From TrEMBL:
Pfam families: Fer4_15
Matching InterPro entries: 3Fe4S_ferredoxin, ET_Ferredoxin
Keywords annotated in UniProt: 4Fe-4S, Electron transport, Iron, Iron-sulfur, Metal-binding, Transport
Cofactor(s) required, per the database record: [4Fe-4S] cluster
Organism: Streptomyces achromogenes
SUPFAM superfamilies: 4Fe-4S ferredoxins
Described function: Ferredoxins are iron-sulfur proteins that transfer electrons in a wide variety of metabolic reactions.
Designated name of the protein: Ferredoxin
Length: 99
């Protein structure tokens, strides 16, 4: 796996499990970042490939995964995948992102 980003343009992603339908689209698109847990909901994974089972946990991801992560945001039927800048917390992709 390529190294994850480490500068002011760092992005992190989190899932609102309250809205997740459990269809698994995100895990199909980006298995490096998303995974379904035994509860049937999607969670993000750490840089060490560990499933982060706390609701709303965030993780950074490599920029070469950005297209796939953004596709997941667009296809997510629960509209519950959020991508934000680490530096200021502004959501750049997701239901709360500016058009
Ligand atoms: S695509 Fe969205 S609704 Fe579907 S499993 Fe992933 S986070 Fe949940």
């Amino acid at each position: 796996m390529s190294p994850r980003t480490t500068n002011d343009e760092d992005l992190e992603v989190w899932i609102d499990q309250d809205l997740c339908t459990g269809d698994g689209i995100c895990a199909q698109y980006v298995p490096e970042v998303f995974e379904l847990d035994v509860d049937g909901l999607a969670y993000v994974k750490s840089e060490q490939d560990e499933l982060l089972q706390a609701p709303g946990a965030t993780t950074r991801f490599a920029l070469d995964l950005l297209t796939d992560v953004v596709d997941s945001v667009k296809e997510c039927p629960g509209e519950c995948i959020h991508v934000r800048r680490v530096s200021d917390g502004v959501e750049v992709y997701g239901p709360e992102a500016a058009d």
